[in-house]
Design goal:
By secondary structure, the chain is an alpha+beta fold. 43% of the residues lie in helices and 20% in strands. This is Cell wall anchor protein.
């Protein structure tokens, strides 16, 4: 009986070994593996678990389902996206990384990671993680636990949201009222301003020319600034005096437009000389002679003087009003004499 029992046990053992060999040979084309960068870490440190599966192309693989903790005490911080590598010979390798940490010291057993490939389950080897506590310096005296610090006072933390919206609305309304008071009133009251209080274009231009002459820009070597200011004064004067958009026109356009004006025929050539000289100085960087600088100022003053609108004297205005024909009465218009 003992011999028969021994023979039976040996036969069963050989059968189990043969089954293991057949299972391994049937599955040796699929390889799963797990390894850690470091098997021992300090409390709070991190380490990476690297997962690999090698298989033939075209097979459906389901990666391990990983929760926020692998085991109690080992937390998962990040799971990388799968990375597929071509191993040639119709084989691929899928890599995956799991970043873990632990805040409790001890030895942790990490269970195998399970892959499902074509309805077959494959497990990696189990892993062990040693978490070492932070060393405590016992040579120094112990310190008492610090008290709880009160957070700094921030006013906005105690202000409701609707109060903030209300303040913003009030600011917008106040800005609108100020804008209306600042600019809207001027637009409405602009027509009511007495025209006699407005400085005529002639006086404004002559005043600006005198100020430019007193600034002595060209005497200080600033010919470009001198001619720029001079042409700016003339353009503003022409814009206000003749109601043409001289500020947006070229020098040639201004001269051609004023050539058809009877009031500027006498001084049109002087205006041309001023604008041409200014263009040479501003764009061609020409250095004019002192006599040229004096002459363009004289031409500018003469142009403004010659194109000054004629003002009627009070006697002339009264005479013109008296000489105006009076409307006939209805009786005279009908040819019937007054009774």
């Amino acid at each position: 009986m003992k011999v028969r029992s021994i023979i039976l046990q040996m036969f069963c053992g050989c059968l189990l070994v043969s089954q293991g060999v057949v299972s391994a040979s049937a599955q040796n084309h699929i390889v799963v593996r797990a390894q850690m960068d470091s098997a021992a870490i300090m409390m709070g440190d991190q380490t990476t678990v690297r997962l690999e599966v090698s298989q033939d192309k075209g097979k459906f693989v389901r990666l391990p389902i990983i929760q926020d903790t692998l085991v109690a005490g080992v937390e998962v911080l990040k799971i990388s996206k799968p990375d597929t590598l071509d191993l040639k010979n119709n084989r691929i390798q899928i890599n995956n990384e799991v970043l873990i940490t632990s805040f409790d010291s001890g030895l942790y057993y990490l269970p195998p990671f399970k892959y499902v490939i074509d309805n077959d389950t494959f497990e990696t080897q189990s892993l062990s993680l040693k978490v070492v506590p932070v060393p405590v310096d016992t040579t120094h005296a112990e310190f008492d636990i610090k008290g709880v610090d009160a957070p700094p006072f921030v006013l906005w933390d105690y202000v409701p949201a609707w109060v903030v919206y209300l303040l913003i609305a009030l600011v917008v309304i106040a800005a609108g009222i100020y804008a209306y008071w600042r600019w809207g009133r001027k637009v409405k009251t602009g027509d009511a301003v007495d025209e006699t209080q407005i400085i005529p274009p002639y006086e404004r231009a002559m005043q600006a020319l005198h100020e430019l002459k007193d600034s002595k820009l060209w005497q200080q070597g600033q010919e470009k600034a001198y001619y720029t200011a001079l042409t700016e004064i003339l353009r503003v004067y022409i814009d206000q005096r003749f109601h043409i958009n001289a500020m947006e026109m070229t020098s040639t356009q201004i001269v051609e437009t004023l050539r058809r004006n009877e009031e500027t025929k006498a001084v049109n050539q002087q205006l041309r000389d001023i604008l041409e000289m200014a263009d040479f100085v501003k764009f061609a960087k020409m250095r004019p002679l002192p006599d040229d600088n004096v002459q363009v100022m004289r031409y500018a003053e003469n142009f403004v003087e010659e194109t000054k609108p004629e003002e009627k004297t009070p006697e002339e205005a009264e005479t013109a009003s008296e000489s105006a024909p009076e409307p006939e009465s209805q009786g005279e218009a009908s040819g019937n004499p007054k009774k």
